[in-house]
Design brief:
alpha/beta, about 35% helix, about 280 residues
Amino acid sequence: MVSLSAIILSYTNGEKIHHMNLNCIQTLQQSEVFGKDISLEVIVIESNKNYHDDGYKFPPNVKVIVPEQAFNFHAYLNIGIAAAEGRFVALCNNDLEFQKEWFTEILKVKNAHPEIHSFSPVEPNEQWDANAYVLGYNVRKHIKGWCIVIEKELFKITGKLDEQFEFYYADDDYAMTLRKHHMPHAVVVKSVVRHLGGVNTESNREEGQSEYNRVTSQYPNLPKYLFTDGYKWILRNEKLLKGHLQFHKKWGSVKSIAWKMKLYRLLSVFGCGHWVKW
């Protein structure tokens, strides 16, 4: 039997969010015939420290963990991964609706290609020119931060998720980590999960000039490319900027990464993509 542990991050601070949580869990539990060929463990990592006192209830077969530490996207996922008993872990937002046999379709790709350890589903309206899967590292296109399924063996190669990425650039860091270790990621075109977008995590590019002035004065030695029109909006959000600078320090500038990607694609034609050091 193949075992799957679904790790769902949530901040249950109202009935609307709680109902979204329950819908996510219900559609997950009904998406497969669990207990026959696939077992399911559901773990909720709850950010509301008063969760137990606020009267919200999850189904009795759901494990709820309330970390003592403040919210940190990768740290909370690592807590869930450490607690998970499954061979596979699904790292999930709480605003998802799982379609029938979404995980079965991932297993089909896994069984045909044992070298792949990282997967994402697609949304119902996506169109892909492929019958089964597409390899790639593009965040939001291939790597869906709202649902990534990982065979736990992968963490023996990559190590745990980097907890310096508290929220921003977490998906980008995961993509670069896969590149570094030359581990493929597959978006599985017949695995369908609807992302409701219940919580807006996009940064506001229209924040005020005062915030821009404050941030740029606080960080006097910023990379020059951040002042160009394509990146200037990052300077209007300090947390976003912090994530970007951490990513820059770890992986290099946007320009250097782009050059490495071009070199990687060129060398991959000759089977030498592994020569590129990330």
